[in-house]
Write a structure and sequence with these properties.
Helix content is about 35%, strand content about 15%. It contains 7 helices and 7 strands; from the N terminus they run βαββαβαβααβαβα. Strands 3-2-1-4-5-7-6 form a 7-stranded parallel β-sheet, with helices on one face. The radius of gyration is 16 Å and the shape is globular.
Length: about 170
Amino acid sequence: MSAPCRVAVIGVTGYAGFELARLLLRHPQIEKPTFFLREGNANVRCLTELFPQLRGWGDAPCRQLSVEAVATSGAEVVFLSTPHEASLELVPKLLAANSALRVVDLSGAFRFRAPETFATWYKLPAPDAKTLAQAVYGLPELYAEALPNARIVGNPGCYPTSVILGLKPL
């Protein structure tokens, strides 16, 4: 059995972040995750202060969000449960600050390979080519070979997954 993975989570206060916290706190191969919060929650020291229903699930420390704090936290993997605008800003900075860090982005920021497709759908400037080249769409049925070495995993959404998997045999 491999050593437990050290994980950081950014953006835990929304629904997806909360559900992610629930999964990580119970996962046998995850070492105590650290949750990073924005300024509005500066006094929160443990996730149970925000979500009392997580009491008894294990230690859930919270820290103030900064790229440096995440990069030096000892985390091997960072989950971003942030809006795509925040992910677009954070991911390049996190990768530059820690060359060993891997990122799983739950937003749509790194789901598209072509910058033009991203710009068309999100009406925002696309991620830079260097960062985008490190991203793999997190659908193992299609990209199982590339996922283990990906620096960025663009987590697929439920609607695209259902359509893509249905069309794959065609």
